[in-house]
Amino acid sequence: MPERGSGPTGDSVAQRLRRTQERFEPLVTRVILGGIFVTGLVAQFVKPVGDAIQGKAYLGGALLSLVGYVLYDAVKELSTSTRQPVRALVGSSELGGFVSEAFKARKVEISFLGYTGETLYNELYHRLRALSDAPGQVRDVTVRMLVPDFEQPMTVPARVGPDGQHVDDPAFRARLLQRCEEYEGALSDIADQISRTTRTEVRCEYRFYPGIPGQKVCIFNRVQVLHGFYDLSARMRLQRTGPEYYDPKGYTTDLNVCSPGTAATDPVVTMWNKHFDDLWALASVPSWRRSAAA
């Protein structure tokens, strides 16, 4: 959801003010330093001006101001040239850094859309275990995992049939379904423990969306989106001599990084947040939670 007061491009008021400040701050600083230099120089040679400001070392002060002006430009240029560039593409194995960064906030919200969520689950599990020992400033954590509805017949994942055809395999789907149930169970157990023993509230939940796992999306605190596409042609065998399965490999998926801060990226982040919220509202509850509720 866009921030209150956002414009047609998705920029929030705070973000527009920040960019305006960054644009005009260097100009204002240069004008002030330049004004000091010119005033000091004029005071050296024009007596009325010198008397007016009651200064004596005008030329020295003016030269010092000029040095400050030059150094300011040099430092600004050095800062710009050494600033670390934002990486546009990362591997799924690098999700740990994004998870750790998200947990620096007081309110943490992590959303996932993809296959089983295994790569993200591993990072979340260890981060939540650490949180149970030292919550720090974190007071609220919400983890939402959207995975395909493995309870329904599927094209991918599926068994590789004659001529490479996709053949639905209930046993293989049941294996993936059990894996997701185990992931949610482990995360929920830690979440319950943290909520009982600390001042931090933690919620972790899996839901199902219909269709094949074509895209992998991770949203961190609603301000940073990682997005990539699974290789739907990837195959694997459970046993060396067993049948092949179409099984997307999440850990090999490269992800595009989209963060707020520019007119080009802010609307994309807003779009992905809305898209995920809409899918989450339409998603179905897994059978293991329906059974527990009954």
TrEMBL record:
It comes from the Bacteria. This is ATP/GTP-binding protein.
